[in-house]
Design brief:
Elements: H1 2-16, H2 25-36, E1 48-51, E2 54-56, E3 69-76, H3 83-87, H4 89-102, E4 107-114, H5 118-128, E5 133-137, H6 141-146, E6 156-159, E7 165-168, H7 175-186, E8 199-201, E9 205-212, E10 217-225, E11 233-238, E12 243-247, E13 257-264, E14 270-280, E15 287-296
Parallel strand pairs: 3-4, 4-5, 9-15
Antiparallel strand pairs: 1-2, 1-5, 3-6, 6-7, 8-10, 10-13, 11-14, 12-13, 14-15
Helix pairs in contact: 1-2, 1-7
Length: 298
């Protein structure tokens, strides 16, 4: 595992070097990797489990801990902060879909959300349409047992079947870390990546204006392939279950344009701003788009 840790350390340093820190970034990364590699994550005896914003029996969640490999994400949510921005559920959904198809049930995902407000947690799970078991800690017990790193980018781990840390790093923040996770799980190097291209978007934001709850409206984003290789859109993910996307699955030749069509069906009144992430072979992937507006019940 020393080889993997060295590679991961280099990746982490690349992400940290751009940050201003009173401590040497290289030293911080080295200390964290040395401290956490091989360390066992401790789990409280009683931990509440929620499925799709509804409480569920722990028995329905225990199988997640029995996987040969686990990705564990710990997030502490402060009142008033952007919860969706911290958790990034819409990014995790894409990784989970890929894991289901490529990793043959070798990997499970453990989401540990810590907050004193159950109301805030339920709102987060409901608004993100996260239909996957999530563990909730309202007493801060999980962090007291483990004393997780304070920096959010290090509060994610690849664990083995005994909950010992193999790798440190959040794959939703850096696709190279996700590639490394997959290499460790499969025991082999990933296939060479497809050729990349460049893309331009006619607009990055679409404002629906006023829209009725229960109604439906569409936004069309046009993406032009300005690179030298065919543009391939692998997936389009929205940050809310109230929005869905359609796109052409065929490669888009250099110089040609394709469309991503997003349908919005508000379920609650009020202002909304949702992210649409276009995952493709562009260097700027995921290409982030925004839909916004105000939903009214009248």
């Amino acid at each position: 595992m020393k080889k993997w840790n060295f590679i991961l350390l280099l990746l982490m340093l690349c992400g940290l070097c751009s940050c201003q820190n009173h401590n040497n970034p290289k030293t911080v990364a080295q200390q964290l990797v040395a401290e956490w590699t091989g360390k066992q994550v401790l789990i409280p005896d009683k931990l509440q489990c929620s499925f799709g914003w509804k409480d569920t029996a722990m028995a329905a969640c225990t199988d997640l801990w029995n996987s040969y490999y686990k990705v564990l994400l710990y997030v502490h949510l402060d009142s008033g902060s952007c919860s969706n921005c911290k958790v990034r559920f819409f990014e995790w959904k894409l990784l989970m879909e890929e894991a289901d198809s490529l990793l043959s049930n070798k990997l499970s995902f453990i989401f540990l959300l810590s907050s004193k407000s159950k109301k805030d947690l339920r709102f987060l799970l409901r608004s993100s349409a996260m239909n996957y078991p999530v563990f909730i800690d309202t007493n801060g017990e999980i962090n007291r047992l483990n004393n997780f790193p304070s920096k959010t980018e290090y509060q994610c781990f690849l664990l083995d079947k005994n909950n010992k840390v193999l790798l440190v790093g959040n794959p939703t923040l850096n696709p190279k870390i996700w590639k490394l996770y997959k290499e460790v799980i499969t025991g082999k190097k990933a296939a060479p990546q497809e050729k990349t291209t460049a893309v331009e978007v006619d607009k990055a934001v679409h404002d629906f204006g006023a829209i009725k709850v229960g109604g439906s409206s569409y936004a069309v984003f046009r993406l032009k392939n300005t690179g030298d290789h065919p543009l391939i859109i692998n997936h389009v993910l929205t940050s809310c279950g109230c929005a869905s996307a359609e796109w052409d699955k065929q490669p888009v030749a250099a110089g040609q344009t394709t469309e991503v069509r997003v349908e919005m069906k508000p379920t609650e009144a009020g202002f909304f701003s949702k992210t649409v992430a276009v995952h493709c072979n562009a260097k700027s992937s995921p290409v982030r788009l925004t839909i916004s507006g105000t939903a009214s019940s009248k």
